[in-house]
Amino acid sequence: xxxxxxxxxxxxxxxxxxxxxxxxxxxxxxxxxxxxxxxxxxxxxxxxxxxxxxxxxxxxxxxxxxxxxxxxxxxxxxxxxxxxxxxxxxxxxxxxxxxxxxxx
Length: 104
What we know:
Elements: H1 5-21, E1 28-31, H2 38-44, H3 48-59, H4 66-79, E2 86-89
Parallel strand pairs: 1-2
């Protein structure tokens, strides 16, 4: 199992519980997908294979800027098509369309 999955699963479950226990609060767990940050680049530099995949993903537009994912989050929040406690996953494939409620 790749690094970080346990933490992401725990966060998603925590957000569901917060939503259930606080029905007057709208809760969203947002996974922005691969974002070109120093941390992401550092994590991909662990092996030659990871570095190659990272460079290929950057070249093919599969790694987004923080601005793109932030704008997507604003859009998702404005549309309000998710249920409180949902996990919304964003990826480059959704930039020109898509739906929320589980996956943007």
